[in-house]
Specification:
With 165 residues, the protein is mostly beta strands. It is 14% helix and 50% strand. Strands 1, 2, 3, 4, 7 and 8 form a six-stranded antiparallel β-sheet that branches. Strands 6-5-9-10 form a four-stranded antiparallel β-sheet, with no helix packed on it. The longest helix is centred in the first third of the chain and has 23 residues. The protein is elongated and about 45 Å long.
Length: 165
């Protein structure tokens, strides 16, 4: 009998926790989304890029760009921008640039915060967003030319099934 009760106590605790926490998920006035995005291009890996979308606020950033197969890459110009596409309207929502001699083998994107409003004056929701991607530009000293690559993070039209649809 004691073994039965001891085995039942964790389950009761789990069920009580579930009931209490279920009440915490109720959201009034709209949807709240947290996206943790990652992607890669020919030269770059982007990990940990976050987007928080609420009816009142929009936050993006804290990603880590890492150049593939390189421990050090010196340049004097670097630019990063995150794009959001809504109904074929492409908008830059986050940028970060740096100039001067630097190692860009690993680069933190920084972050932005503030409301994001579409062309109709409404706050953007995840349902509005069709695509999210990042463009990385840097100066290649050895080639003496500007390099540019795109990193796709989200594309709803290429997904047949998704939790985001």
């Amino acid at each position: 009998m004691k073994k039965y009760i001891k085995g039942l106590v964790p389950w009761m605790y789990l069920m009580l926790s579930f009931i209490v926490l279920s009440g915490c998920n109720v959201q009034k006035g709209g949807n709240h989304y947290y996206l943790l995005l990652m992607g890669e291009s020919e030269s770059w890996n982007l990990t940990g890029y976050e987007m928080v979308i609420t009816p009142e606020d929009f936050k993006a950033g804290f990603g880590n760009l890492k150049m593939k197969n390189v421990n050090e890459y010196m340049t004097d110009s670097f630019h990063f921008e995150a794009h959001v596409v809504i109904d074929n309207d492409d908008s830059v929502v986050h940028t970060n640039s740096a100039t001067g001699e630097m190692n860009i083998a690993e680069y933190t994107t920084g972050a932005i915060e503030g409301p994001y409003i579409n062309k109709n004056g409404d706050f953007v929701t995840l349902e509005d967003i069709n695509e999210i991607y990042v463009v990385v530009e840097w100066w290649d000293i050895s080639k003496n030319e500007s390099m540019k690559e795109r990193i796709d993070l989200l594309n709803k039209s290429k997904k047949e099934q998704s939790f985001l649809n």
